[in-house]
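Decarboxylating 6-phosphogluconate dehydrogenase structure dump, as promised
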Amino acid sequence: MHLGLVGLGKMGGNMRTRMREHGVTVTGYDRNPEVSDVESLEALVAALPTDAPRVVWVMVPAGDPTRETVRALGELLGEGDLVVDGGNSRYTDDQSNAAMLAERGVGFVDCGVSGGVWGLENGYALMCGGSDADVAKVQPAFDALRPEGDSGFVHAGQQPGAGHFAKMVHNGIEYAIMQAYAEGWELLEATDLVENVTDVFDSWREGTVIRSWLLDLLVSALREDTHLDQLRGYADDSGEGRWTVEAAIDHAVPMHVIASSLFARFTSRQEDSPAMKAVAAMRNQFGGHAVHTPPPPGGDAS
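structure tokens r here:
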């Protein structure tokens, strides 16, 4: 198989390498000429053989960059060709992109990709959506990217967006698991009873029901910085946690834990919680409870 790949960043660049190592010919394009195989999107499409459906995999940031790239490819590709969106697009974008490409006879597959910087070595978990015929056109690339073994790849559904919807829920669950580990770590750090918190987490990596790759990664981070003194307690969100909660609202699905883990990330970005200021003010008003005020210049807080 000869495939075009747009976007050669941390994920895309490693995916190009893994596919090449597993027998897939890849022509890559990136705006950074130092990593790009060709000088333009037009040159990438021109480099693909015309004796089989041309397949171009897009790995650029979600939103406008992906939409613009897919639109440009729709102008360059033709009947029977295929675009794969492997970024973190919202599933509703897939439906719009698929409809736009279909007007030109170009197929569309959405594929959620998980594996991060470790995917090159371990393989990538892939969740794709699209017709059987379109998925078959890109199956050799899926087989090259996926991990060894029976798991790690799923054709989640025939409709555009099925793959990214599955990946969205995956990321929502990821938020919740990380939050649970983080809260457990904070509690263990807060007590004098436990003398080596890192070793406690390390002991959970085998034989327990909460062992996971995320736990392995947390232990690795704690080995490097036992009390995480080098980090600020600020966590971004990529958007997929929000979309998961919004989808839960749309479908009337209770999602207490994932929603709480998303809101915890919002809390991490506040230097001083406005809501807690209001709570303190109300406690002071109804019960005369003490409040904490900021220090005056050169003085101490009260």
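The first helix runs from residue 10 to 21.
lmk if u need the other ones
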